[in-house]
Amino acid sequence: MKKINLPVMLIAVLYFCLLSAGIAAAQQSTVALKNSYQNKEHGFSFSYPAGWLKVKVHDELVSILATKTGIKFPINMGVIYRTTDEPLPKSKGFLQEAYGDSLKVESLIDMKIDGCNAKKAVVTMTRNGQKAKQLQYFYKINGKMYFISCDMPYGQSEKYTRIFEAIMKSYKIKK
Fold first, then answer.
1. 89 with 140: CB under 8 angstroms?
2. How far apart are CA 154 and CA 73, in angstroms?
């Protein structure tokens, strides 16, 4: 009778389990972005999930609202801009000073949005008695600074951060 090499067998089983877990995690991380928005005047576009509504809110160029009910804090993404000579936010402290006590800046990092220099801030706050998280993206092009705000309840931030990051990966800027 042939002897089974137990260490090799255990390594093979462990490898198979890790591979299966990795495939399952990759499948869960896929976000389906079925709808698209394009603003020709300001030269940007992005995709967003089916079931989310495009609305006009205040001075925003566009606002995308998740269609979740019964939540005190709406899950949404808004884009605004202003003409300015100011640079992108320089530091976490600089941004915190601008916001005062109403928001807490957790982080500020350099990044790129469609090849354009940008900043990403993670901010927490309390609105309508509920702790909330906001992802903020800043980029500047042709003398205009664009600000993208992604709002979500704090307790659901893992789920919605993944969705907003997928939306931002789809974000295109006409240069």
1. no
2. 10
Residue 75 has pLDDT above 80, yes or no: yes
Tokens, residue 28:
């869960």
Instruction: Please name the amino acid found at residue 80.
Output: I
Beta-bridge mates of residue 60: none
- pLDDT computed for residue 73 by the predictor: 61
Residue 54: band (very low, low, confident or very high) from pLDDT cuts 50, 70, 90? confident
Q: In sequence order, what are the residues at sequence separation of 6 or more whose Cβ sits closer than 8 angstroms to the Cβ of residue 58?
A: none
Task: Return the amino acid letter for 158.
Answer: E
Cα dihedral: 120, 100, 132, 144 (round 10): -40
pLDDT band for position 81 (cuts 50, 70, 90): very high
Please name which of 120, 109, 114, 121 lies closest in space to residue 169, comparing C-alpha atoms: 114
106-123: average pLDDT: 97
CA dihedral 160, 78, 147, 98 (to 10 degrees): -80
* Residues 163, 172: Cα–Cα separation, whole Å: 16
